[in-house]
Amino acid sequence: MFRELTDGVVTGLAMLATVVVVAPLVAIFVYLIYKGASSLSLSFFTRLPRPVGEAGGGMANAIVGSAILLGIASLIGVPVGIGGGIFLAEFGRGTKLADAIRFTADVLNGVPSIVMGIAIYALIVVPQNHFSAFSGGVALGIMMIPTVCRTTEEMLLMVPHAVREAALALGVPNWRSVLSITVKTASPGIITGCMLAFARVAGETAPLIFTALGNSFWSTSLNQPIAALPLQIWVYAQSPYEDWHRLAWAGALVLIILIVTAVSLVRYVTSRGVLKGAS
Amino acid sequence: MGVGIEVINLNAWYGTNHSLQDVNLNMPGNHATALIGPSGCGKSTFVRCLNRMHETNPIARVTGTVRIGDLDIYEDCKPVEIRRRVGMVFQRPNPFPTMSIYDNVAAGLKLNGYSNHRALDEIVEKSLKNSALWDEVKDDLKKKSGASLSGGQQQRLCIARALAVDPEVLLMDEPASALDPVSTSKIEDLIFQLKSQYTIVIVTHNMQQAARVAEKTGFFLNGRMVEFDSTHKIFTNPSDKRTEDYITGRFG
Questions:
Q1: What is the spatial distance between Cα A182 and Cα B11, in angstroms, rounded to a whole number?
Q2: Nearest Cβ partner of B112 from A94, A171, A276?
Q3: In principle, which of A5, A135, A143, B129 could form an S-S bond with B134, CB 3.0–4.6 Å?
Q4: Do A169 and B162 make contact, defined as CB atoms within 8 angstroms?
Q5: pTM score, two decimals?
């Protein structure tokens, strides 16, 4: 009797926890659709922003701009993060250097994103004398590094020792065994880490204010200020105009859909090669 | 072809723990040698010294001489070279989980830069036939993961993987202890066939198994080799009292 009661209570608590975790996401999504879907149209994806009062503007430049910024960020954050994680887990284990890197990554993870923006402003924007897509991408890329690095390390450490031994016992050199066996075995987890980092920086606004700046016109140049969805949403949401508010809601909805699409696409592509029964 | 193994004054440590002390023995080529003894007696450490896997543990240390054929493995070559000539099968089956059955067998060759596809196909088939697994997996070679097989099949897959790099010696560290009796007898049949081509060293807790597959048997106790002789003599008329006590089940 008591055991059944305990079982019921614990199961109930677990279900409650699930609801609490899922509810905010669902609520946000539903609210975004409610507020934003009505302003979505083809022109939202194909047109540039219009001046206040003119109807029918879009965010085409911000969508492309976000894609470019995230591309640059991933080119920096993913290789550096994975490389760092591999070093921490495989080559530098137990060394002072590894401890220092781990500590640095954790601190970097805690740096407020606005501070990251100011730092890149001082390091890249001021010397170059202009805002640019490049500096924005760098700011986002650096923010990706600690997440990618630490998840890569943790996923590699979860690969069983027996698998490493199997490779070494075949006469495979250590570096080759790490790259071809250990990293490959851990790759689903590593990819999840990259996606988490990607999704996190995709919505960042603060690091872009002092770097990418935003742009009302069409630009794909890395050397020019560039528009980005979060920046555009921020500007529109702060404005006093009703149309702009609606566009901001639509932009937020598009941003979330784009993130979900990108993450699902990567998951789909990377899971295609997985064999039957692979763990 | 299998070659003989000569071990002279082998000592091994894990940190400060002196886990192998002055081991000397001669294992003949193309035979199976069984190593028995209670848990923690150093027999696993001993076989791990024969392919220099012992030193992959950062706190481990070895002294002494091991000759495999004409090669002094601690003087004449690098660890990766000796591990290609001395294959190893572990206690728990450890196939590469993300690789297909085919890639598991081909792993040793592929990862060492071998890329002749037609030859690889032949080697994979031959290795799987040698490990008596071919008939069970030939239709799923590239479709299924190595981890999808049963435990006994996985262990034979690991044997095929070790055979594919064409070693001279095959070390087996309790290869059947995690398997059911049917799989165990398959592995034992396999050992019986393989010793015509390879020198086999097998660590086992199962004394019947040692008696069935090995011509020579060594008894380890507390890091020392107590007795090494023909299997028949060890199990019927051991010269050391401690061996007799262990065989008859008085301890360990």
A1: 31
A2: A171
A3: B129
A4: yes
A5: 0.87
